Structure formats: structure tokens, C-alpha cells
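C-alpha cells as discussed.
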């Protein structure tokens, strides 16, 4: 009985310490790791949130770009940091989901080595084709590919990337055989679609939309579950005949595993409050990006589904983890 009482007392003290620590957070600068180079979409997101969080916290928020190994260098640095909330990372669909199915020697386990805090954004991507195909609907494109098995090519940002696996999921759902041509980034792939060297691409709206408006490529559908406000005339792939198809690159904030729940809730609430600011929401919207601001439990469940889905996507694509 005495031993039980001691254990209860220790547990109460532990919880109290966590609550006090969360209420006083932060007491010093917070480092947010961007596991990609400066100037990219993750860097954009982090630097957009940075000044608002600094105002809210009364402390500096230091953005630390640590690119390399498909986002794993920066992620690994955070996974090994103290679980005190002062070192966070903005992870992505690539660094925390897709890598699992395409990289044999992961530097970390996305599901075990991190504390999911909140999903920050999701972005609709667009499927576009060269005008020479003579199609402008998803069903027409599907029929065009079916009539030419293995001959219609698509460019991707690289083997195992979002666009590659999105096409593989599409091909699996509709029993389509397509020719994959990998590039080093979406811009290179899009350039060859414009030139007619390859016929199709799935890419982010800010990159592809100007070429659609210029008539250099034809927009067919968006890859998310709902239409994109920037191109409301384009249907979703699901509307085109692939029920449940939903490919939306996302970003989210993680801390090291083992963070106190009260601290996680505090950081979550502050980030969500910033995401709900009209000026922040609108700035993302003009780039074709939706803000999310999920609860930690929701984000953790979402992450598990994403890891499972993209591991299966890599298997369908015949990718052997290296």
C-alpha cells in the first residue's frame, strides 16, 4: 500500500512538472529544422510561420536548413534531440512517409522516433498532358492510354517521389501501363512535357498552372479529394473515375519521441492559432496550399495511414529499397 502511494505521488509530480513546463514554454529560442534547402516549399512554410510564432512565444524561432538524403539528415538530427520542445522539424510526405518504402537503411523510424504535433498543410497537385494527345478530360486520357499500353510516357521528379508513386497508384487502380521517365525535379520534367519529349506530368500547382494558362500543357484533373480553388474548373481524379484517389503532398511539425503530452498540446495550440490567422491562411491559399492544423492524435493516425499507403505504392512501382 505504501509503495503504491509513493508511485501515485511520483506520477502526480511528473504530471505537474509537465504542466508547469508547458505553461512556461518557451524559455529560450526554439530551433525549427527544415530538412530541405532554402527557397523550397518547406522553407517557405517555416519562414511564413516563424515571425508569428516569435510574436506569440516572445522568443526567437531559428530556422535551420539541414538538407540531404531525401529529408533524412534534418529529420535524424531532430529525432536525436532532447524531447523538450526546443528542437522541432517540418517533415513532409517524402521524409516521413514515402522514404519508408524506397530507402532500405532509414536513419529513423517515422512512427517511433518522433512526436507528431500537427499537420500544417496539404496541397492539391495537377495532372497535365501535352496538347498533341488531343484529350481534355480524364476519361479521354484513360482511354488514350489503354489503347497504347506501355507507350504513353510520364515525367516524374525522380524515382520514388510523389509524382512517380502517384502515377503508379493511378495505373494500378485503372490497370494502365505507362512509361516512366524520371528527372531530377519537377521543373525538368515539365520542360520536357512542354517540348513533347514526354506526354504527361503530375506536379504542384504553382509550377504547372502558369503553363496550363499559357496553353503549353492541358490540365486534366487535380489529385486531391476536392477541387482546387485556383482551378475550380478542373475535376478531381476521383470524379474522373477513380473513387477514393487522394494524393496531396503535405507538411507537418514533429518533435522528438517522448515529448510530454501537455507540451505537445501547447505547441499544437500555438501553431494552429497561427495557421488560422487570415493573413497566414490567405498567403498559403494564393500558392494553392490548404492549411490544416490537426490535433496530435489525428496527425499520428494520418501518418500511419500515409506510411502504409506509400509503402504499398512503392511495392506497386517495383521499387527495391536501396
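Sequence:
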Amino acid at each position: 500500500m505504501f509503495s503504491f502511494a509513493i508511485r501515485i505521488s511520483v506520477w502526480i509530480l511528473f504530471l505537474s512538472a509537465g504542466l508547469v513546463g508547458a505553461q512556461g514554454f518557451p524559455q529560450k529560442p526554439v530551433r525549427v529544422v527544415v530538412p530541405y534547402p532554402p527557397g523550397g516549399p518547406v522553407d517557405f512554410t517555416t519562414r511564413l510561420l516563424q515571425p508569428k510564432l516569435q510574436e506569440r512565444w516572445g522568443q526567437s524561432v531559428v530556422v535551420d536548413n539541414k538538407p540531404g538524403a531525401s529529408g533524412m539528415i534534418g529529420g535524424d538530427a531532430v529525432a536525436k534531440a532532447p524531447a523538450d520542445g526546443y528542437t522541432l522539424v517540418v517533415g513532409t510526405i517524402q521524409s516521413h512517409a514515402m522514404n519508408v518504402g524506397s530507402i532500405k537503411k532509414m536513419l529513423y523510424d517515422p512512427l517511433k522516433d518522433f512526436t507528431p504535433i500537427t499537420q500544417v498543410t496539404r496541397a492539391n497537385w495537377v495532372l497535365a498532358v501535352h496538347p498533341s494527345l488531343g484529350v481534355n478530360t480524364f476519361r479521354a486520357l484513360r482511354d488514350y492510354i489503354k489503347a497504347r499500353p506501355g507507350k504513353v510516357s510520364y515525367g516524374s521528379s525522380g524515382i520514388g517521389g510523389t509524382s512517380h508513386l502517384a502515377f503508379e497508384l493511378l495505373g494500378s487502380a485503372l490497370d494502365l501501363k505507362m512509361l516512366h521517365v524520371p528527372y531530377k525535379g519537377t521543373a525538368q520534367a515539365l520542360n520536357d512535357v512542354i517540348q513533347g519529349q514526354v506526354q504527361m506530368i503530375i506536379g504542384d500547382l504553382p509550377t504547372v498552372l502558369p503553363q496550363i494558362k499559357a496553353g503549353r500543357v492541358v490540365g486534366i484533373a487535380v489529385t486531391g479529394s476536392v477541387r482546387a480553388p485556383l482551378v475550380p474548373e478542373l475535376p478531381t481524379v476521383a470524379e474522373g473515375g477513380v473513387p477514393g484517389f487522394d494524393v496531396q503532398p503535405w507538411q507537418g511539425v514533429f518533435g522528438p519521441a517522448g515529448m510530454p503530452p501537455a507540451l505537445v498540446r501547447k505547441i499544437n495550440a500555438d501553431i494552429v492559432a497561427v495557421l488560422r490567422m487570415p493573413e497566414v491562411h490567405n498567403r498559403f491559399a494564393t500558392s494553392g496550399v490548404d492549411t490544416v492544423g490537426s490535433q496530435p492524435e489525428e496527425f499520428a493516425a494520418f501518418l500511419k495511414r500515409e506510411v502504409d499507403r506509400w509503402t504499398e505504392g512503392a511495392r506497386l512501382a517495383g521499387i527495391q529499397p536501396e
